[in-house]
C-alpha cells in the first residue's frame, strides 16, 4: 500500500526549530552539537543513561516531576504539585495550605496521603516488534492483540511487585517502549511555604509574566528497613537514592544554556489541521464552559464552609489552572492564526509528497477516521459528564471491578487487574479527603442539566432518572440518592471490592443500581472507541513514517509528541518581546513581591517575608547582576555602558526557551554542568499554544529560581534542618 499524507501536520520551518524538542534520553547523542552550542557541557552519553547522575535523580509523581536532592530521599517539586499532600494534612485547627508547614525532624514528617507515589524510571526499552507481533488487520481484533501483547510484556516486567511497568506508544503507534519504574509508596511532607508564597498571584498571575511565585515544596521518600519499597509505616526509614542533585547557589545569568528533565504530559504537534480546528471550535469552548461553571459553584459553596474549602482546595486549583490554559489556548488561536500556518505547511508537505510520487489513499482514510473520532467525542462528552458524581463513579468502577474478576487476570481490562488492586483501593479511600455531598450533588445536577439540554441522549440514563420530569424533581431525586447510599462510607466502599457482580445486580443502593443500569451503554461506548483505535493504529503510523521522512529531508529535528514519559529539553535563559510590545526581562526581583502586595488574596505575601525584604536580609543569596558582561547580547539589548546592568536583589523567577508542557511542573532546571538552578512551574500566556505549535520567538517557560528557594528557607522560614541536607556549591 502506498502511503500518503496530504493532511499531515507539519510543524515548522528551519527558522522555527531553535530549542524545540521534548527528546527521549536515548536521542541525546544525536543532538550533542546543539547541546554544545547552548553551552551544555555535560556529556550527551551521560544524559542518555538512566542509571547515571543526573537522570537517575529525576522522578515522577505520576502527574508532575520531582528530583532527589539529598542522600536521605529528600525530593523537591512544585508547591502546586504537592498541593494534594498539603491539603490532605490540613484541618481547621492547622491549615497548612494557609500557614505553610515545616517538619523539624524526621519523626514530624506526615504521610502525603495513600495515593502519593514516587516513580523512579530505571529502564526504557524498545519493544515495537513484540507489541506488533502477529497482530490482526481487523481493527477490533488488532486493538485486542496489541493490548494482549502489551499486557504480557508488563506482566513479565512486573515480576517484582516493587516495580510498575507500562508500554507507551511513540510517534502515534509507530514505536512502542517498555518503561520500568521503581515504586516508592511511602511519601511524606517535609517543608512547604504557605499558599501565599507558593501560589503568590494565584489565578491572576497564572501563565503571566513577570511572576513572583515561590512554587516549591519538599517531600521525602521512605522505605522499609531492608531498603525495599513499602506502604506507610512508622518503622520505615528514608530512601537512599542512587544519586541526588547538587545545587548551584549562584544560579544562572541571561544567555546561559540550561536543560530540563521531566515527564511532559501531552502535545499534539503532529496532529492534522482538522484536529486543531475541532479543538479550537468545539472541544476547548465546551470544556471551558464546564470548568468555569464548576469553579463558580465550588467557590460559592466554599465561602460558607471552611471544611468544604479545604476539601476542594486541590480540585479548585486544578480546575482554575485548566480553565486559564483553555482561555489561553483560545486567545492564542485568535492572536496567531495557527490554523492557517498549519494549512500552509501541509500544502508544502503535499508538494513534497507529490514529488515523491506518493498516493492519497491513506490521507483520505485518516481524515475519515478523524471525523468519526470527533463525532464520537461529541456524542460521548455529555453522557460521560452526566456520570460525574463521585459516588456514581465509585459505583461504576466497583461494578466493573466485579465483572472483570470473572475473567483470568491477563484478560482483564487495564486498571482492573491484580496489579491495580492497591491503587484501586487507595483511590476509593482518597475520595473522603476531596468530597462533600453538597458540592458533589450540585456539580452533578449541573452536568445532568447540560446533558438534558443537548440531543445525544442515552435511553438507560433517561429511564432511571425519569428526566422528563421538572428540574426541581430531578434535584429532589438526586438528594434522595445521596441520603440512601452507603457509598459515602469508606469501609462500605472498600467492602464492595470483594463482592460478586450478582450482589451489585440485586443491590438497593441507588448509585449501585444506576451503575448497573448504565453498564451496557458504557461498554458500547468503550467498544466503539476500541474499534476506532484499532483502525487508527494502522493509519497514524503510516502518516508518521511520511512526516519523519519529510523532516529528515529538511534536516529538521524529529522527536515524539509528549506522552508522560521521561524527556529532556534544552534552551537558554532568555526574555522575549510580548504581545503588548514590551520586552519581558528574563528575571524578576524580590522587590516585585512588595510592589504587588495588596494584603488581599492572591497578592497577600506573608508579613515575615515582607519584613525580610524591607530589612534587607538578603544574605549571600543577593545577586549583583543577572546579565553577561558588556560584550554580551543582553547588555547590548539593555543599552549597558561601562558596567553590566545592576540587579542587586534575590532573583525570584526566570524565563528560558526550554520546551515544556503540563507534567513538566516540578522538573529540575539544570545549568550546563548538570547542577540544579531552578524548578519549572509554568509557561507564559503567549506560549500556551505550544502544545500545537512551537514558536521560538515567544515560547518561554517560567521557573522558580533556586536562589529564591534558598533565601526563603534561610531568611524567612528558618528551614535550616532542610538546608543542611542539601549539597550547595558556588562556582
Structural class: alpha+beta
DSSP summary: helix tally:
26
The proportion of strand residues reads 5-15%
* Unreliable spans: 1-17, 639-643
Main β-sheet description: 7 strands, antiparallel
Distance between the termini: 59 Å
- Percent of residues in helices comes to 40-55%
Q: Which descriptor suits the 3D outline? A: globular
Mean pLDDT: 92
Radius of gyration: 26 Å
Topology (elements, then pairings):
Layout: H1 32-37, H2 44-48, E1 58-60, E2 65-68, E3 74-77, H3 83-88, H4 96-99, E4 101-102, E5 118-126, H5 128-131, H6 139-157, E6 163-170, E7 175-184, E8 186-192, H7 195-198, H8 202-205, E9 217-223, E10 237-238, E11 247-248, E12 257-262, H9 273-302, H10 306-311, H11 313-335, H12 338-355, H13 361-385, H14 390-404, H15 421-430, H16 437-452, H17 459-465, H18 471-484, H19 490-495, H20 501-505, H21 510-553, E13 567-572, E14 576-577, E15 583-584, E16 587-589, H22 591-596, H23 607-614, H24 633-637, E17 651-656, E18 668-670, E19 676-683, E20 701-705, H25 706-716, H26 720-723, E21 728-729
Helix pairs in contact: 6-21, 9-11, 9-13, 9-16, 13-21, 14-21, 16-18
Amino acid at each position: 500500500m502506498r502511503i500518503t499524507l496530504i493532511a499531515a501536520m507539519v510543524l515548522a520551518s528551519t527558522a522555527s526549530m531553535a530549542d524545540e524538542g521534548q527528546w527521549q534520553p536515548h536521542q541525546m547523542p544525536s543532538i550533542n552539537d546543539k547541546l554544545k552550542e547552548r553551552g551544555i557541557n555535560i556529556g550527551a552519553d551521560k544524559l542518555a543513561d538512566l542509571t547515571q547522575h543526573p537522570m537517575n535523580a529525576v522522578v515522577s509523581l505520576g502527574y508532575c516531576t520531582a528530583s532527589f536532592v539529598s542522600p536521605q530521599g529528600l525530593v523537591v517539586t512544585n508547591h502546586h504539585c504537592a498541593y494534594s499532600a498539603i491539603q490532605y494534612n490540613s484541618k481547621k485547627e492547622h491549615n497548612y495550605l494557609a500557614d505553610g508547614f515545616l517538619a523539624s525532624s524526621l519523626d514530624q514528617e506526615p504521610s502525603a496521603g495513600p495515593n502519593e507515589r514516587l516513580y523512579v524510571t530505571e529502564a526504557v526499552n524498545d519493544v515495537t516488534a513484540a507489541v506488533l507481533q502477529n497482530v490482526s488487520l481487523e481493527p477490533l481484533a488488532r486493538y485486542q492483540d496489541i493490548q494482549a501483547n502489551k499486557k504480557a510484556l508488563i506482566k513479565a516486567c512486573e515480576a517484582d511487585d516493587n516495580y510498575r511497568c507500562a508500554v507507551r506508544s511513540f510517534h502515534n503507534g509507530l514505536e512502542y517502549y517498555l518503561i520500568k519504574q521503581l515504586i516508592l509508596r511511602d511519601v511524606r511532607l517535609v517543608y512547604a511555604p504557605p499558599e501565599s508564597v507558593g501560589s503568590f498571584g494565584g489565578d491572576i498571575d497564572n501563565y503571566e509574566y513577570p511572576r513572583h511565585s515561590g512554587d516549591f515544596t519538599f517531600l521525602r521518600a521512605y522505605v522499609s528497613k531492608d531498603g525495599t519499597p513499602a506502604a506507610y509505616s512508622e518503622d520505615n526509614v528514608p530512601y537512599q537514592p542512587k544519586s541526588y542533585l547538587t545545587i548551584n547557589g549562584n544560579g544562572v545569568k541571561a544567555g546561559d544554556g540550561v536543560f530540563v528533565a521531566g515527564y511532559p504530559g501531552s502535545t499534539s504537534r503532529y496532529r492534522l489541521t482538522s484536529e486543531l480546528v475541532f479543538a479550537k471550535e468545539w472541544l476547548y469552548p465546551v470544556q471551558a464552559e464546564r470548568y468555569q461553571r464548576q469553579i463558580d459553584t465550588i467557590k460559592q459553596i466554599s465561602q460558607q464552609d471552611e471544611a468544604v474549602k479545604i476539601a476542594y482546595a486541590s480540585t479548585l486549583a486544578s480546575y482554575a489552572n485548566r480553565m486559564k490554559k483553555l482561555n489561553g489556548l483560545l486567545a492564542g488561536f485568535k492572536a496567531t492564526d495557527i490554523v492557517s500556518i498549519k494549512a500552509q505547511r501541509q500544502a508544502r508537505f503535499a508538494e513534497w509528497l507529490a514529488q515523491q510520487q506518493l498516493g492519497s489513499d491513506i490521507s483520505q482514510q485518516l481524515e475519515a477516521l478523524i471525523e468519526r473520532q470527533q463525532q464520537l467525542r461529541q456524542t460521548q462528552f455529555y453522557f460521560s459528564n452526566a456520570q460525574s458524581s463521585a459516588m456514581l463513579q465509585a459505583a461504576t468502577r466497583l461494578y466493573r471491578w466485579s465483572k472483570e474478576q470473572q475473567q483470568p487476570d491477563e484478560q482483564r481490562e487495564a486498571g482492573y487487574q491484580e496489579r491495580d488492586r492497591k491503587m484501586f483501593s487507595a483511590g476509593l479511600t482518597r475520595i473522603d479527603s476531596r468530597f462533600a455531598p453538597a458540592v458533589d450533588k450540585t456539580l452533578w445536577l449541573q452536568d445532568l442539566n447540560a446533558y438534558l439540554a443537548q440531543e445525544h441522549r442515552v435511553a438507560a440514563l433517561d429511564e432511571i432518572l425519569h428526566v422528563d420530569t421538572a428540574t426541581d424533581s430531578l434535584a429532589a431525586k438526586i438528594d434522595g440518592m445521596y441520603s440512601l447510599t452507603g457509598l459515602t462510607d469508606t469501609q462500605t466502599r472498600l467492602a464492595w471490592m470483594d463482592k460478586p457482580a450478582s450482589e451489585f445486580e440485586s443491590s438497593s443502593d441507588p448509585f449501585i443500581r444506576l451503575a448497573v443500569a448504565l453498564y451496557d451503554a458504557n461498554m458500547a461506548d468503550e467498544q466503539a472507541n476500541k474499534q476506532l483505535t484499532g483502525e487508527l493504529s494502522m493509519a497514524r503510523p503510516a502518516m508518521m513514517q511520511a512526516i519523519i521522512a519529510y523532516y529528515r529531508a529538511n534536516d529538521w529535528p524529529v522527536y515524539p509528541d509528549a506522552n508522560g514519559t521521561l524527556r529532556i529539553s534544552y534552551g537558554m535563559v532568555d526574555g522575549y518581546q510580548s504581545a503588548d510590545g514590551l520586552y519581558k526581562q528574563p528575571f524578576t526581583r524580590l522587590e516585585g513581591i512588595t510592589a504587588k502586595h495588596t494584603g488581599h488574596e492572591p497578592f497577600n505575601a506573608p508579613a515575615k517575608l515582607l519584613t525580610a525584604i524591607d530589612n534587607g536580609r538578603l544574605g549571600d543569596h543577593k545577586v549583583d547582576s543577572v546579565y553577561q558582561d558588556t560584550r554580551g547580547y543582553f547588555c547590548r539589548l539593555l543599552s549597558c555602558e561601562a558596567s553590566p546592568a545592576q540587579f542587586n536583589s534575590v532573583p525570584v523567577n526566570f524565563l528560558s526557551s526550554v520546551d515544556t508542557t503540563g507534567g513538566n511542573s516540578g522538573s529540575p532546571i539544570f545549568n550546563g554542568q548538570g547542577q540544579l538552578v531552578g524548578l519549572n512551574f509554568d509557561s507564559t500566556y503567549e506560549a500556551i499554544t505550544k502544545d500545537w505549535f512551537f514558536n521560538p520567538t515567544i515560547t518561554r517557560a517560567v521557573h522558580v529560581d533556586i536562589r529564591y528557594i534558598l533565601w526563603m528557607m534561610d531568611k524567612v522560614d528558618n528551614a535550616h534542618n532542610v538546608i543542611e541536607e542539601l549539597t550547595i556549591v558556588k562556582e
